[in-house]
Amino acid sequence: MASSVALKDDAREIALGEVRAVREHVSDPEYAGQLTHLIGAIEQGEVPESATDALGRVLELALQAGRIRAVYGPGGEQAALRLYRRLPAGAAVAASADEVSRALGALAGKELESVSLRAVGPGSYALSLTAGGAELSVRLDRQGARLASVVL
Q: What's phi and psi for 4, nearest 5 deg?
């Protein structure tokens, strides 16, 4: 991951708009200061590594809430998603999904014996699969998809 993240065109406009929108509603002086610093960095077109987590949190919230799509349309949502994937939080989510996908690949070509999905809590699920004697359990929640257990 680069030490800073360059922003161009749509991604810069969206990031700036979303961070400003959050900044307007923040009462905590420390967090407000962080967002003000982030706004300055975005205006310059480059977010330093020290501010990428804050930008990731703002984009994650706006994407999950559907705000970016509502305000900027589908193209804006795609630009925000591309930017989010370049930030540490987005890269971690992608890496987690890749890990789960590789583990599920171990079941390819094997006879599926059982599949179950159970609610663990609000917005949190456990997907269990058994195939060819192998068992995988995947946790799905706001933090993404993660392997909970693997028995090969």
A: -140, 165
Q: Residue 1 — very low, low, confident or very high, per pLDDT cuts 50/70/90?
A: very low
Cβ atoms of 82 and 72 within 8 Å: the answer is no
- Collapsing DSSP to helix, strand or coil, 16 comes out as helix
If you average pLDDT over residues 70-95, what whole number do you get? 95
How high is the pLDDT of residue 2?
A: 52
For residue 92, CA distances in Å to 69, 95, 140 come to 23, 5, 14
* Whether the predicted model's global pTM rises above the 0.85 cut: no
Q: Which two tokens stand for residue 39?
A: 């706004």
For 10-28, the three-class secondary structure string (H helix, E strand, C coil) is HHHHHHHHHHHHHHHCCCC
Q: Distance of CA 89 to CAs 29, 54, 64, Å?
A: 24, 10, 14
